Amino acid sequence: MTPDLKIPFTKWDPISLDELGSVMDGATFRWCIAGGYAVELFAGEFDVRPYRTHGDVDVVVFRDDQSSVQTHLSDWELFAADPPGTLRRWESGEQLGAGIHDIWGHR
Questions:
Q1: 8 A C-beta contact, residue 42 and residue 33
Q2: Please, which residues bridge with residue 88 across strands?
Q3: Residue 103 CB coordination number (10 Å)
C-alpha cells in the first residue's frame, strides 16, 4: 500500500454533471447522482440553474460493483477516504470494507 496522501482540497475542481454523464456512458453497473445535486434535480431547481455552488459531485454505486467501477474508470486515479478525512490510493482489485464510503477520483 502507498502512504496516505494529502490532497489540497482548495484546488479540487469538481466534474460537471454533463462531464459526469460522458464519463459514465457505457457503464455496466447502476449508478446515480446523490447529495446536493440530487436534491436540486429532484426539486426541479437544476433545470434553470444550480441553486448553490457545489464543491463536488456525489455518485452512488452498489458496493458489489466495486471491480466494475475500477474497470470503467481505469484511466482515473482513485482514492479511498480511509480513514475518513485521509485519502489513500484505491488499489486495483482491492475490495473496500463496509466502513469505507467515499471514493475520490481524477483523470
A1: no
A2: 80
A3: 20
**Other CB atoms closer than 10 Å to residue 44's CB: what's the count?**
8
User: Measured between alpha carbons, how far is 15 from 23 in angstroms, rounded to an integer?
Assistant: 10
**Share in percent of the chain as helix, strand, coil (round to 5):** 30, 20, 50
Output the pLDDT for position 78.
94
Distances in Å between the Cα of 70 and the Cα atoms of 24, 51, 64, 80, 91 are: 12, 32, 12, 12, 9
pLDDT digits (tens, 9 = 90+) for 62-102: 999 999 999 999 999 999 998 878 889 999 999 999 989 99
